[in-house]
Amino acid sequence: VLVLEGAKPLDVGIPAQVFTTRASMPYDVRVCGAEPGVVAGGDGLSYQVAHGLDALAWADIVFVPGYRFPDREDPPEAVVDALVAAHDRGARLAAISTGAFALAATGLLDGKRATTHWHYARALAAKRPLVRVDENVLFVDEGSVLTSAGAASGIDLCLHILR
How many other CB atoms are found less than 10 A from the CB of residue 128? Predict the structure, then answer.
């Protein structure tokens, strides 16, 4: 789970809970940031992450939770590069809510359908005109890249991935 600055708590918690590390589940969930340490989150919370972008080098699925003000600036170049590298080696990338902006910054959504939080759908379409934004669905599965609408639909996306 890649926590970006301004990350929304529910968006971070959904994949961390659904894919939690426990004996009955075959997952090893790691929460990471652009670098290890404290990541300022949204809604007054912050996250202490033990891993940096190196965690993406082995991940089978990289979740990008939604974050505040995604329409204002792109994620750091190192984050974009790490997402592209993870995808290039075969990892699936899944965005919850406004995390779709980070995936769109990679160019991996160009020519594909995607969704995001309804409040930001028009902003995503304007910022990334090559992305076919669909604001009337809970989630979109384009194979190696997946996006969900708001946080609650992130649960649907995670359950879809589990199937």
Answer: 19
Q: Assess whether pLDDT exceeds 80 at residue 23.
A: no
Domain edges within the chain: 9-162
CATH label, 9-162, candidates 3.40.50.880, 3.90.550.60, 3.40.50.970, 1.10.10.10 = 3.40.50.880
Residue 150: which residues within 8 A CB-CB, separation 6 or more?
66, 97, 117, 118
Whether the predicted pLDDT of 61 surpasses 80: yes
38 exposed, middle or buried (CB, 10 Å; 0-12, 13-18, 19+)? exposed
